[in-house]
Design a protein that fits this description.
By secondary structure, this protein is α/β, with parallel strands linked by helices. The chain folds into two domains: about 10-55; about 70-415, SGNH hydrolase (Rossmann fold), CATH 3.40.50.1110. Helix content is about 30%, strand content about 20%. The strands form five sheets. The chain has a seven-stranded mixed beta sheet with strand order 4-5-6-3-9-12-13, covered by helices on one side. A four-stranded mixed beta sheet has the order 7-8-10-11. It has a two-stranded antiparallel sheet with strand order 1-2. Strand 10 (about 245-250) and strand 11 (about 260) form a beta hairpin. Bound molecules: 2-acetamido-2-deoxy-beta-D-glucopyranose (6 copies). One 2-acetamido-2-deoxy-beta-D-glucopyranose (NAG) binds near residues 261 and 264. One 2-acetamido-2-deoxy-beta-D-glucopyranose binds next to loops. Its main location: membrane. Keywords: Membrane, Signal-anchor, Transmembrane, Transmembrane helix.
């Protein structure tokens, strides 16, 4: 309590400075956006030569602070096509993969891009890419998980890339990683393919078996060595577990393959992950996040009784309370249990409920299957071919990143 008060005071004493700098930051951003210069204004104004230890303070304005008591995961989606525009467009972000560019792939409606998440008791801070880059200066942010998590990674890259001049940023593929480097901030935003977090036979970034699954519930070292020292880690793993009620896995002897209940297997895997965290993470220097399950909208009768379709042709979010059977509450409880017992602090971003409402925001037939865009014939058979797992971008994962950003701002001010 006392600690919190002193913190608040320290932050308050920064307000006049904050307001002045906000203006400057705002102007710089417009500059960069319009000039698209190859020369780096960001670097001139705020950059520091590499290796110089002193870090400029990031200015946290009053609007950036979410109240401790506010649950940002409870709220509603509000339509706003005027003052709230997506942070980027399919055209303005060259880093989007075909799988997520729904408009380009022929999606006729674009309403899904204009819903803003409004928590009940507070406002999410306005996302400011420059501020995020200042927080990330000299750091690595890594998303670990499956293709849903890859969507969140791409969303984050697109949300920040517009302020970085051409030639000062690059996207590299180093399977199973993708690395977006931002030279002038000496920072990177990365993605690491590990659909089960622990090791499995599906770990090859592109040539992985999808139907045949075998998870090594007690093995994580091969992945873990790539996560060591990463400043901010964001984990996610869910949909790959949920193919059938049981899953082939090993635990102990690598030759002893058994069918495990998915819940049992998931728990063992998370425990392996938890042990890795406890032995490898330095809580003083590293931050860990865990994303809750991304919901699927595979059965339209769940929100429209009597129908027999899926997310295809859905243009509006679900109104009123809703929780689909695809989001397994037993798995939710396991995550809760494992995180509660961890000695390392992991921030749980419980985005399931807010995403549950968004039956309209999946790629549906305007995405890929087995790495190829759907053919016309396949598109005309949405029952068989609609993808109600992945999300169009810009879209729902941008909101997850706004929430992640809010937390990064919050934890950053604690280090002021
Ligand atoms: C920036 O660089 C690209 C290629 O390197 C060039 O085509 C473009 O004209 C440059 N833009 C400006 C504003 O100098
Ligand atoms: C915004 O949405 C409203 C209601 O759907 C519509 O009438 C209006 O034309 C839209 N405005 C813009 C700028 O798209
Ligand atoms: C487990 O592996 C066996 C042998 O390959 C296979 O017959 C069985 O269907 C698999 N079980 C699951 C749940 O995939
Ligand atoms: C696996 O799940 C089934 C159905 O949920 C349950 O009946 C069974 O007891 C479970 N087995 C184990 C080993 O937990
Ligand atoms: C899509 O939904 C609209 C109503 O929301 C309906 O009129 C139209 O026939 C549907 N299209 C298809 C291809 O199912
Ligand atoms: C996540 O949110 C849902 C819906 O609000 C809630 O039922 C669930 O208990 C939460 N999970 C955890 C682990 O807090």
């Amino acid at each position: 309590m006392t600690k919190q008060l002193t913190l608040d005071r320290r932050i308050q004493s920064l307000f006049p400075v904050a307001l002045a700098s906000l203006l400057v930051l705002g102007t710089t951003r417009v500059f960069l956006d319009t000039l698209k210069s190859n020369h780096s204004f960001v670097f001139q104004l705020y950059g520091r030569p590499r290796g110089q230890e002193q870090r400029p303070a990031v200015i946290i304005s009053p609007e950036d602070r979410i109240d401790e008591s506010c649950n940002v995961f409870e709220g509603k989606w509000v339509w706003n096509n005027e003052s709230y525009l997506p942070h980027y467009t399919e055209q303005s972000c060259p880093y989007l993969v075909k799988q997520v560019t729904c408009q380009k792939n022929g999606r006729p409606d674009s309403y899904y891009k204009n819903w803003r998440w409004q928590p009940n008791d507070c406002k999410l801070p306005r996302f400011d890419p420059l501020k995020l880059m200042q927080i990330l200066r000299g750091k690595r942010l890594m998303f670990v998980g499956d293709s849903v998590q890859r969507g969140q990674f791409e969303s984050m890259v697109c949300m920040v890339q517009s302020i970085i001049p051409r030639g000062k940023k690059s996207l590299q593929r180093v399977p199973p990683r993708k690395i977006f480097r931002i030279d002038e901030f000496d920072a990177s935003i990365e993605y690491y393919w590990a659909p089960f977090i622990v090791e499995s036979i599906s770990d090859h970034a592109t040539k992985h078996t999808v139907l045949k699954r075998l998870v090594k519930l007690d093995s994580i070292a091969k992945h873990g060595k790539h996560w060591e020292g990463v400043d901010i880690l964001v984990f996610e793993s869910y949909v790959w577990w949920m193919h059938k009620p049981t899953i082939n896995a090993t635990y102990g002897s690598p030759n002893d393959v058994q069918e495990y209940n998915v819940t049992t297997a998931y728990k063992l895997a998370l425990q392996t992950w938890a042990e890795w965290l406890e032995s490898s993470i330095n809580p003083e220097r590293q931050k860990v996040f865990f994303m809750s399950m991304s919901p699927t909208h595979l059965w339209s009768w769940e929100w429209r009784p009597g129908s027999d379709e899926n997310c295809y042709n859905e243009s509006y979010p679900i109104q009123g309370s809703y929780w689909g059977t695809g989001s397994n509450t037993k798995i939710m409880d396991i995550i809760d249990d494992v995180l509660q017992n961890l000695k390392v602090k992991v921030t749980f971003l419980n985005i399931t409920q807010l995403s549950e409402y968004r039956k309209d925001a999946h790629t549906s037939v305007y995405g890929e299957r087995k790495g190829k865009l759907l053919t016309k014939d396949q598109r005309s058979d949405p029952k068989k071919f609609a993808d109600c797992i992945h999300w169009c971008l810009p879209g729902v994962p941008d909101t997850w990143n706004e929430i992640l950003y809010a937390h990064l701002l919050k934890s950053h001010q604690n280090f002021l």
